[in-house]
Design goal:
Belongs to the COMM domain-containing protein 6 family. The protein is built from 8 helices and 3 strands. By secondary structure, it is of the alpha+beta class. It folds into 2 domains: 113 residues, no CATH class; 68 residues, Nuclear Transport Factor 2, Chain: A (Roll).
């Protein structure tokens, strides 16, 4: 991971660290590594989304462990150095700065930890479509609904999950949402 961190320019690495801290503080639902990876690649750095996601997971673990152990900035930097870390100097400087500025605000209550193991709903998009024909059937005229859910998994990675439903399935889905809404109104 240290070799991949060396590739990331300091400003992008700082942005990644700050987004992770914001995620751990429940200010944002997750870190959009796909968008950040695209911007890093546009700047001329060759890195893939899988490597960036691994780095984000490592940093998230680092910051949450430091918060759980209530480490000061110097203790965190000393721990990084004593662990035989081969982190580049610019990365250690960014970690020191971000932790010094925002690290103490991380809430590590039991409720926050429990919620973090489930993931978080970010957005939902849907569209109505009609399948007109296929290679095995000339005339389908079959309506369907495509739903795309954007979720942040426990590590903070934002992903899209898509599925299709028939109209009867969608009506059942809609009915269940209405039931949830009515229950929430009584709370």
């Amino acid at each position: 991971a240290a070799d991949k961190i060396r590739l990331i320019p300091q400003d992008f690495f700082a942005e990644l660290c700050e987004q992770i801290i914001q995620h751990l503080n429940h200010k944002i639902p997750g870190v959009n590594t796909a968008e950040l990876c695209q911007r890093i690649q546009t700047s001329g750095v060759e890195i893939n989304i899988g490597d960036l996601a691994k780095i984000a997971n490592i940093l998230s673990f680092l910051f949450s462990t430091a918060a759980r152990n209530n480490l000061s900035t110097e203790e965190l930097v000393t721990t990084l150095g004593s662990a035989g870390s081969t982190l580049p100097k610019h990365a250690v400087q960014v970690i020191r700065h971000v932790w010094n500025e925002q690290g103490k605000a991380i809430a590590v209550s039991e409720d926050a930890r429990t919620m973090a193991t489930v993931g978080q709903f970010v957005d939902m998009k849907w569209k109505l479509g009609v399948a007109m024909s296929s290679d095995t059937c000339r005339s389908l005229k079959y309506p369907y609904v495509t739903v795309t859910l954007t979720v942040a998994d426990p590590s903070g990675q934002i992903t899209d999950k898509s599925f299709e439903m028939t109209i009867p399935q969608f009506k059942n889905f809609f009915r269940q949402f209405k039931e949830m809404a009515s229950v929430l109104e009584t709370v």
